[in-house]
Design goal:
Strand order of the largest sheet of chain A: 6-7-8-3-9-10
CATH class of the largest domain in chain C: Alpha Beta
Shape of chain A: globular
Largest sheet of chain A: 6 strands, mixed
Number of domains of chain C: 2
Chains: A alpha/beta (272), B mainly alpha (220), C alpha/beta (274)
Order of helices and strands of chain C: EEEHHEEHEHHHHEHEHEEHHHH
Number of strands of chain C: 10
Number of helices of chain A: 11
Structural class of chain A: alpha/beta
Number of helices of chain C: 13
Oligomer: heterotrimer
Strand order of the largest sheet of chain C: 6-7-8-3-9-10
Helix content of chain A: 25-40%
Strand content of chain C: 15-25%
Largest sheet of chain C: 6 strands, mixed
Distance between the termini of chain C: 30 Å
Radius of gyration of chain A: 19 Å
Chain lengths: 272, 220, 274
């Protein structure tokens, strides 16, 4: 299992351009579920692209299990970190759902029976097993997004990184994504997701990292990141805490980032 | 030579002589080298030998012809470069539209310039996505060649689906209405510019006639 | 008023229709929300309501699209363009790609329609003001954020002075800041009497601006009523639609056998937040 560290990472897209990442120090232990939030332009995508070598730091280091990854290629790092992009149409190229999902594990050297199993399992997880022979473009946009997720899932990497997995998804789609994350976590894998959906973030992740202007503004469990003391910081970067957190604060019940925690606080509150 | 003057003087006036010379030079360099080499060594009517490289001879006539050809090429490329450096494509297209070309043709001309950066950006995201799935772009040439389909596929398909959406958006904004459209702005035209254009247009047949009659030979 | 009269629509080459006998009315000054699972037909409905289907998209349509009682089938596309504005989820594909500034981009629609120059300028400035983006007028549209681009796209529609606006998941690709920008702008338009049909997964956003909501399932309109009622309808989850956060919270509370006093406190909190 892989332990990730960003050590003083800065990144500039072009010479003389602004710093997209301005001194990031972040450690993600194996098996954590981390949500990365922040407005567009805050550096979230830039950050995750450093995890698999797509981008190399302008200064600072990226470490996997304590070892600097500077000399390893993206293809090598893809064994450790699977990254699902936000736009499935910038990834899908195969004529059938099954061959699309095959691409990732095949690149990692998986063959024969193992390959078939990896593909079948990934398709089953996202509910596309019946569409194995279908052309991806005959699926709707949201199922194509689930296909892109399955394609990366099938690589069974120790770290799974998802860029806005629930954007454009309906209720079922969000449920599928949530279950994929649960299963990955249960298997000991690290899950890192960029998301704008605060409800999803509060419910499915143990840790929330808030980025703003290339820096880490807040880093902690949902209960503290969405608690009232943090609201000013959140709002300065145009984020809103999830509704249960707001209601809980209004009713003086402390930090209640999820429905469940709010209801629990209500039940046990004195005079309630 | 006349052309060269016609190119250099405005360039001087527009303060772009340096850029002009650099760009024109860059453009003509490949062809200039081949013209020089071919004519210097292989000019059929060459008699006076300048120097010899093994069995190949460089002739003065060849050199003369090469230089003459290069001068012509230089003048032409200078003129083209001058046009390119002084005319923003959008203004050109707007002017043409003002004078009557179809707005849809104008649109295609303008839009084609825009699509290139978008295509480049799209291609780079797609490459990144496929690399993240283990596509090897840093390995052997053979491996990299195998990677073309996973890259070409989304670039082409995505561009096609994007075109569909773009078309709908354009139609929803009245693009298909026949006839002219109202222009917000077009490049201003002064009487001086009109005069200059007429003079230049008249100069062409005059020069042709003059040449045919054997005058001004030294300017050619 | 925009009316869909028993509309059944099938995409070219598709085995089944994507819309089955859908009837709905968008009255002037009304904001109608459209919800449904992915592929339930929301986008198709938006395309039909704007006249793009079957005209530009192909396919077969039975039933009618009526504009103030007049059959839209008789009107050429560019005339429909002046009466119904449609916006899609992806801001980038909606920009014309030929405008150097936001001002030119917003003016693109009326320019195409041959609107005389003084009126063209007036409409453009009005549209920029309506969405409060006058400050962006000189900027290059390609360099704006997604939310800003979406606002420019909507301004471009407003400049057409359409009777109706159709928006297909306009905030899908936007971050919370962009979503808030668009939501505020739409609320302002609605307050000024605009007639809007908006499809969204974000039911919370719809709760804030819609007067009525229609829910689609497999191409059929299965629910149609007052926004607050439909969004609180327990059947929404079965239809694959996530209810607004407040509704979900209240429902969970109701199902957890909490004492009445506790529920009352929760209701207080929710009410205060509205």
């Amino acid at each position: 299992m892989t332990d990730l560290t960003l050590d003083g990472v800065t990144y500039r897209y072009a010479r003389g351009g602004t710093l997209a990442l301005d001194g990031i120090d972040l450690h993600v232990a194996a098996g954590e579920r981390v949500a990365l939030i922040g407005q567009n332009g805050s550096g979230k995508t830039t950050l995750v692209r450093h995890l698999n070598g797509l981008l190399r730091p302008t200064s600072g280091r990226v470490l996997h299990d304590g070892g600097d990854v500077a000399s390893r290629t993206v293809a090598q790092l893809a064994r450790a970190v699977g990254l699902a992009f936000q736009d499935p149409d910038r990834q899908i190229f195969a004529g059938s759902v099954a061959s699309e999902v095959e691409f990732g594990p095949r690149n990692l050297g998986v063959r024969g029976g193992d390959l078939r199993t990896a593909v079948d399992d990934a398709l089953a997880e996202v509910g596309l097993e019946a569409e194995a022979r279908t052309n991806p473009y005959d699926l709707g946009a949201s199922r194509r997004k689930l296909l892109a997720l399955a394609s990366v899932q099938a690589m069974a990497t120790p770290v799974l990184v998802l860029d806005e997995p629930t954007t454009g998804q309906d209720l079922r789609g969000v449920e599928v994504v949530t279950r994929v994350i649960e299963r990955a976590h249960a298997a000991g894998r690290t899950v890192i997701a960029i998301s704008h959906d605060m409800g999803f973030v509060a419910a499915s992740f143990d840790r929330v990292v808030v980025l703003g202007a290339g820096q880490v503004l807040l880093d902690g469990p949902p209960a503290s990141v969405f608690a009232e003391p943090a609201w000013e910081m959140l709002r300065s970067t145009y984020l809103e805490p999830p509704l249960p957190a707001i209601i809980g604060a209004r009713l003086g019940l402390g930090a209640t980032p999820t429905d469940a925690s709010l209801l629990a606080a209500l039940t046990s509150a004195p005079g309630g | 030579m006349l052309t060269a003057l016609a190119v250099i003087l405005p360039a001087l006036a527009g303060r772009i002589l340096g850029r002009l010379l650099r760009t024109a030079l860059l453009l003509t360099l490949p062809i200039a080298v081949s013209v020089l080499v071919v004519n210097l060594f292989f000019f059929p009517a060459g008699r006076e030998i300048l120097f010899q490289v093994g069995p190949i001879r460089a002739t003065a006539e060849g050199l003369g012809f090469a230089l003459e050809t290069l001068a012509r090429i230089g003048a032409i490329s200078g003129a083209i470069t001058l046009f390119y450096l002084t005319t923003p494509p959008s203004e050109l297209v707007l002017d043409l539209e003002h004078r009557g070309i179809s707005p849809r043709v104008a649109f295609v001309a303008l839009a084609s310039v825009q699509t290139i950066p978008a295509l480049v950006e799209r291609a780079s995201t797609i490459t990144a996505a496929q690399r993240a799935r283990g596509l090897d772009t840093e390995g052997s040439v053979w491996r990299r060649l195998r990677g073309v389909l996973p890259l070409a596929g989304p670039v082409l398909l995505g561009s096609i689906t994007e075109v569909e959406e773009r078309t709908m958006a354009l139609e929803a904004r009245g693009f298909t209405r026949p006839g002219r459209r109202t222009l917000l702005w077009w490049p201003p035209d002064s009487s001086h510019q009109r005069l200059a254009r007429w003079l230049l247009v008249l100069a062409v047949p005059l020069l042709v006639v003059a040449r045919a009659l054997g005058w001004l030979g030294w300017l050619g | 008023m925009l009316t869909l009269e028993s509309v059944t629509y099938r995409y070219a080459g598709a085995p089944h229709p994507s819309l089955h006998e859908v009837s709905l009315q968008l009255h002037d000054g009304e904001v109608l929300g459209l919800v449904g699972a992915s592929e339930a037909g929301k986008t198709t409905l938006c395309l039909v309501a704007s006249g793009l289907a079957p005209r530009t998209v192909g396919g077969t349509l039975t039933g009618r699209l009526l504009l103030n009682g007049e059959d839209a089938a008789a009107l050429p596309m560019h005339e429909l363009a002046g009466r119904i504005g449609i916006a899609f989820a992806s801001p980038a594909t909606q920009l014309s790609g030929v405008a150097a500034t936001v001002y030119e981009e917003v003016a693109f629609g009326p320019m195409n329609l041959g609107v005389p120059r003084p009126e063209l300028i007036a409409r453009t400035e009005e549209a920029l003001a309506a969405l409060r983006i006058e400050a962006l007028a000189d900027r290059d549209p390609a360099r704006l954020s997604g939310g800003q681009q979406q606002l420019v796209a909507i301004a471009g529609l407003l400049a057409l002075r359409p009777a109706h606006l159709v928006l297909d998941e306009p905030t899908a690709q936007l971050d919370p800041a962009g979503t808030a920008m668009v939501a505020t702008a739409l609320a302002a338009l609605a307050a000024n009497g605009a007639s809007i049909l908006i499809a969204e997964q974000k039911t919370g956003l719809l709760a804030g601006i819609c007067t009525r909501v229609v829910a689609l399932e497999a191409g059929r309109a299965v629910l149609d009523g007052v926004a607050a009622e439909i969004l609180a309808d327990p059947r929404l989850t079965r239809l694959g639609v996530a209810p607004p956060a407040a509704v979900r919270l209240r429902r969970q509370a109701g199902e957890s056998n909490l004492p009445a006093a506790v529920l009352a406190r929760l209701d207080e909190g929710l009410e205060a937040e509205r």
